[in-house]
Amino acid sequence: MPKAYGRKDRVAALMLQETAQLLQQEIKDPRVKMATVTEVSVSPDLKNAKIFVSFLTDKQDEIEEALVGLNSAAGFIRSTLAKRLKLRYMPQISFAYDSLQTEAMRLDALIAKGLNKDAPLEDDAQS
User: Fold this and answer.
1) How far is residue 8 CA from its own chain's centroid?
2) Is the pLDDT assigned to residue 126 strictly greater than 70?
3) With contact defined as beta carbons under 8 Å apart, do 8 and 46 qualify?
4) Rounded to whole angstroms, how far apart are CA atoms 110 and 100?
5) Cβ neighbours of 40 (radius 10 Å)
6) In percent, how much of the chain has pLDDT > 70?
7) Contact, 74 vs 32, CB < 8 A?
8) Distance CA 5, CA 9 (A)
9) Is the pLDDT score of 58 beyond 60?
10) Average pLDDT estimate for 91-115
11) SS3 letters for 5-56?
């Protein structure tokens, strides 16, 4: 029976914590502004890891530029993580944009727009 919180999940949690700290303190690339690590997905064999990041901007060209900057720094980030985590094998890393936060804000705005209509509610019309 597999553990509820297996090695893959523990490695992902450690990578998330260390990558977030690394991006905040050591990456000086101006293209990578205010990147937030939202999730790390590690393959079952621990050979590959996908790091999901979000940004404060919603401009697609700035997001793509930041992802290029992050993926170009992937070697430095991987070697720094290997030193900090002391794993036997450090997974290959790649970065991907996490659009969940942007989509949540868009849906929230749509809901707010729907609630703020001037039309009376059905209950009010029947009274």
Assistant:
1) 18
2) no
3) yes
4) 15
5) 22
6) 87
7) no
8) 6
9) yes
10) 84
11) CCHHHHHHHHHHHHHHHHHHHCCCCCCCCCCEEEEEEECCCCCEEEEEEECC
Contacts of 85 (CB under 8 A, 6+ apart): 11, 14, 15, 18
Given a contact cutoff of 8 angstroms between Cβ atoms, the answer to whether 102 and 58 are in contact is yes
Contact 77, 49 (CB under 8 A): no
> Encoding tokens for residue 2?
């597999």
- Residue 99 CA, distance from chain mean position: 8
**CA neighbours closer than 13 Å in the CB half-sphere of residue 27:** 28
First to last CA, the chain: 60
Residue 69 one-letter amino acid: G
Calpha distance 15→80 (Å, rounded): 11
- Asked whether the beta carbons of 70 and 32 are under 8 A apart, the reply is yes
